[in-house]
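Budget justification aside, the reviewers requested a transparent look at the raw inputs and outputs of the sequence design task funded under Objective 1. We therefore reproduce one unedited record. The lines immediately below are the structure tokens for a 339-residue chain.
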């Protein structure tokens, strides 16, 4: 109830009912240390989205790419060796065995200093006699750091403390965080495991040809793997090298509201748009999706008290009325002229 200065979080984690991404309801309590209720993915030992007695938080999918591709220049006559700064390096191999229940299937991955070699036909990324592509994924091998972070998140007593935890561990995989606490403060943050790839590095290190086309079409960054100068850069105070620290990632704490519906950080609150950060995080001054547009419209009407759901403030009844009003931005835009 905002009349008491409390914050309210509306979460809509539309994960499937079945499969590997099913969201499980859980209450985890270690007396005096951890007491959080919410949802989590199978196999993860802590609450992913939830609340304790002081705050609640949720996540939405970020436009931030937590990985980059690297274009490799191969040694003539040896497609499993590649050049860096003119010196040849041999690829390593890693063989994985999987028990399928009907026997064992094996696959050998080729690895480089830039990550695993892969083929992405839809991007035109093929392994030829002259060129190959590797992916450097900042979220790999950080499950311990992520688990430690979610433990501390569940113990946080305010959104400021929650932001401090995320800024310390920098382990959020592919998500924004939206949170509110019992003092009426709201947090938006895309503070996670983001490659330290500023615009200057993208400009200097994107190879010509397919890499530029992929970047223009999808925003996926591909860097020149033949130059060590194209490695991810370093910020001070990060738990691992090669990622941005929180000062280069979008976040804000407010006393009115924040919102995200899987678009970029730009309009977390339209009254105070974010400036541009690295393009690897997302973009500003772009058309927003229908969910973002409708959400911000509904919030503006609620703040003004013009939506018919009561006085101009957020309460549990007014938020529930908004949520259950079954509005559609697409229908609002096209239904009348279509009919």
């Amino acid at each position: 109830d905002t009349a008491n200065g409390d914050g309210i979080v509306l979460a809509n984690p539309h994960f499937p009912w079945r499969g590997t991404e099913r969201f499980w309801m859980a209450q985890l309590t270690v007396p005096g240390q951890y007491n959080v209720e919410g949802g989590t993915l199978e196999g993860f030992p802590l609450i992913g989205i939830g609340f304790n007695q002081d705050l609640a938080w949720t996540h939405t999918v970020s436009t931030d790419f937590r990985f980059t591709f690297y274009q490799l220049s191969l040694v003539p006559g040896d497609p499993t060796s590649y050049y860096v700064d003119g010196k040849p390096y041999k690829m390593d191999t890693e063989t994985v065995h999987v028990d399928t229940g009907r026997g064992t299937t094996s696959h050998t991955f080729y690895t480089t200093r830039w990550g695993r070699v892969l083929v992405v036909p839809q991007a035109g990324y093929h392994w030829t006699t002259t060129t190959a592509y590797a992916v450097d994924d900042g979220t790999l091998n950080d499950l311990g750091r992520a688990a430690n972070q979610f433990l501390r998140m569940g113990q946080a007593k305010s959104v400021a403390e929650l932001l401090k935890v995320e800024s310390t561990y920098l382990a959020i995989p592919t998500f924004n965080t939206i949170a509110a606490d019992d003092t009426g403060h709201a947090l938006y943050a895309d503070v996670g495991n983001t490659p330290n790839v500023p615009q200057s590095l993208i400009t200097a290190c994107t190879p010509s040809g397919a890499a530029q086309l992929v970047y223009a079409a999808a925003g996926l960054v591909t860097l020149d793997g033949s130059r060590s100068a194209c490695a991810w850069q370093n910020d001070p105070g990060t738990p691992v090298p090669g990622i941005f620290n929180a000062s280069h990632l979008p976040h804000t704490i407010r006393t009115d509201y924040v919102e995200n519906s899987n678009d970029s950080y730009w309009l977390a609150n339209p009254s105070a748009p974010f400036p541009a950060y690295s393009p690897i995080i997302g973009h500003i001054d772009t058309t927003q999706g229908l969910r973002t547009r409708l959400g911000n419209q509904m919030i503006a009407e609620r703040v003004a008290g013009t939506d018919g759901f009561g006085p101009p403030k957020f309460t549990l009844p007014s938020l529930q009325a908004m949520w259950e009003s079954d509005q559609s931005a697409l229908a609002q835009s096209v239904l009348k002229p279509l009919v």
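The longest strand covers residues 67-75. The chain has seven helices and 15 strands. Computational costs for records of this kind are itemized in the attached budget.
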